[in-house]
Design goal:
Main location: membrane
GO biological process, one term: response to antibiotic
Protein name: Transport permease protein
Largest sheet: none
Subcellular location: Cell membrane; Membrane
Helix content: over 70%
InterPro entries: ABC2_TM, ABC2_TM_bact-type, ABC_2_transport, Nod_factor_ABC_transporter
Length: 256
């Protein structure tokens, strides 16, 4: 009998198995975190139900209030998970030396970042299913091409992930916590999520339209509410943010 005949076998597991295990661990840790659940699940759900039922802000476009609100809050869910939640969690892992220790394991660093991305995608899938179910119960009537919606969500995730990792990998954890929450609130108010961009002054509207949350919410709304085709301009904005954010994160991210 040789060492290779023993179970478990000595040595590192295959990268694919390590990647799946780390993704599952990251997802479990997120779902057990009450603050993260508040940010990623409770806040978008409450905003969807509240603003659909109460005439607090004026909305644009045809159909019911939920037809306008649902796409914007799907965009908010992507931002809360891919940017705010990921930035805060990764920032504190970096502060406490978790990333440094994981980087010394057989798990490659690229696989660790891939596992974090997989966790984001799993969480977003749960968010989309939950928010879509609630919106449908409130009378939402979505339209458009599902492929266009998928492209918007994927590029939106890439854009916000890059920005979140850039913030987490360059700032102190406390600064990341404050900055990520501040950006979340500002983009919620000024990104066309619940307040139409048409309500803002003409002088600032062109700049607001270039924000990733504005491109994502506007693109989802044009497809799901208006039944439009592929929103190439919004996809272009998200693609630029994705390239710049991911490239900057890869260049400046510090593991400790």
């Amino acid at each position: 009998m040789t060492a290779t005949d023993l179970a478990p076998r000595p040595g590192a597991a295959p990268v694919g198995r390590m990647l799946l295990a780390q993704t599952a661990l990251e997802t479990r840790m997120l779902l057990r975190n009450g603050e993260q659940l508040l940010l990623t699940v409770v806040i978008p759900t409450v905003l969807l139900v509240l603003f659909s039922a109460v005439d607090v802000v004026a909305v644009d476009g045809p159909g019911k209030r939920v037809d306008f609100l649902a796409p914007g809050l799907l965009a908010l869910a992507v931002m809360s998970t891919a940017f705010t939640g990921q930035a805060i969690a990764t920032g504190f892992e970096r502060r406490y030396g978790v990333l440094k220790r994981l980087g010394a394991t057989p798990l490659p660093r690229w696989a660790l970042l891939a596992a974090k991305t997989g966790c984001v995608l799993v969480t977003e899938l749960l968010q989309v299913l939950l928010l879509s179910g609630i919106a449908l119960a409130l009378g939402w009537s979505p339209h458009g091409n599902p492929l266009a919606v998928l492209l918007l969500l994927v590029l939106g995730t890439a854009a916000f992930s890059g920005l979140g990792l850039l913030m987490a990998g360059t700032l102190r954890a406390e600064a990341t916590l404050a900055g990520a929450n501040l950006v979340f609130v500002l983009l919620l108010l000024a990104g066309g999520v619940v307040v139409p961009l048409s309500k803002f002054p003409d002088a600032v509207r062109p700049a607001l339209e270039l924000l990733p949350i504005s491109a994502l919410s506007d693109g989802l709304r044009s497809v799901l509410q208006l039944g439009a085709g592929v929103p190439w301009s919004d996809l272009g904005v998200l693609a630029v943010w994705s390239v710049l954010g991911l490239a900057a994160a890869a260049r400046f991210f510090r593991w400790e």
